[in-house]
Amino acid sequence: MGKFFDGFVAGAILIFVGIFLFLYFGFIDPRADMPNNTVSTWVAAPSLDAAVRRLAPPVWDPVQPDEPNLVAGMKIYQAHCSTCHGDVAHRESAFAEALKPHPKQFVQDREDLPENEDFYIILHGIRWSGMPSWNHKLAEKQIWQVITFLTAMPKLPPSVTEQWKAAAAASRPMF
Ligand code: HEC
Question: Whose CA is nearest to atom 7 of ligand 1?
């Protein structure tokens, strides 16, 4: 039993050291323009989902989805988010393909996370991805306004859609 236990501990240590050396000596591909690898698909993505689900506080959108709030959210989105997440005039954003992981293109693929998880992600950003933290950049109310806009995006009132189209057409594409 003692020998079995020693062997087990030695094996576990070897595996741990092996994984450490694999990472430390750079065997994870750092390029953004390569297909997803096993680590990003099977480890990083589920780990991120689980972490956000566990850490996002139980807070809910206090902002009414009325026209002034939707227009305010649209302007924040257009100014700070559309370059990566796309807009009505640029359904594929400038950075859609250029970032790994790819930023979700919200016009084509509606946002479907619970709003408290959206809040947590927008407030804190996502490390090792292109998603910035908006803490200290946007006020809490502005974050909720942009979430209200994201949630309403597939069914915006026509007057807001018109204003969005005008704002998006006026914004210069980066490339
Ligand atoms: C410089 C590029 C960039 C900008 C600017 C940016 N994002 Fe992101 N965002 C990303 C990337 C990349 C991801 C994907 C991260 C991942 O999957 O690990 C992401 C993820 C997200 C997610 C999670 C989506 C999901 O369903 O998994 C939300 C919500 C989000 N961003 C909202 C915003 C909002 C709102 C803004 C503007 C205030 C914004 N982002 C600005 C790059 C960006």
Answer: 131
